[in-house]
Design brief:
Elements lengths: L1 E2 L6 E2 L19 H10 L2 E7 L2 H13 L4 E5 L3 H8 L6 E6 L3 H10 L8 H43 L1
């Protein structure tokens, strides 16, 4: 097995050059390259964000300060996101250990306000009830067209036909 010394991609035997970097592949990494790769892997948990808005805002804010961020779903969140389009578990954000303290201070300066007031909760309940009533009307129409109308037609046809 060969490895690219630049991007650390692994290749099966028979390949001489990295397809991405155009660098000659090597068989074994020397100790300096191995330790550099392990250093890059030392990630520290920074924060769990509940939605994509918070995630995008936090990541873009940190990246303007040259802090790389890795996002990862918590638990089975990725499967929930694929299946239902959302995940109640949010996403975990990770940064390199060397950037953790600076990132923590920057993230704490971001304040996410919950925009739920009594009026907005009442509006939400009214809108939900309106949608529920509309769904009920659609279901009643479907039942009438599918079952009751044909039954009435058969009864009337048998009585007068």
């Amino acid at each position: 097995m060969s490895i690219c010394p630049k991007c650390k991609s692994e290749y099966l035997s028979g390949y001489d050059t990295c397809a991405d970097c155009q660098v000659k592949l090597i068989d074994v990494l020397d100790e300096e390259q191995k330790s550099g790769n392990e250093r890059d892997q030392s990630l520290v948990f920074l924060k769990n964000v509940s939605d994509d808005y918070q995630k995008d805002l936090t990541i873009s804010f940190l990246e303007t300060e040259n802090i790389s961020v890795i996002e990862k779903h918590e638990g089975i969140g990725q499967y929930l996101n694929i299946y239902s389009g959302q995940s109640y578990q949010g996403k975990n954000l990770y940064v390199l250990e060397e950037n953790y303290e600076r990132a923590k201070v920057l993230v704490e300066s971001l304040k996410f306000k919950k925009e739920t007031s009594k009026a907005s909760e009442e509006d939400y309940v009214l809108e939900y009830n309106r949608k529920l009533k509309r769904r009920k009307q659609i279901l009643q129409g479907f039942i009438f067209i599918t079952f009751i109308a044909p039954l009435l037609f058969v009864i009337i046809f048998n009585l007068f036909g």
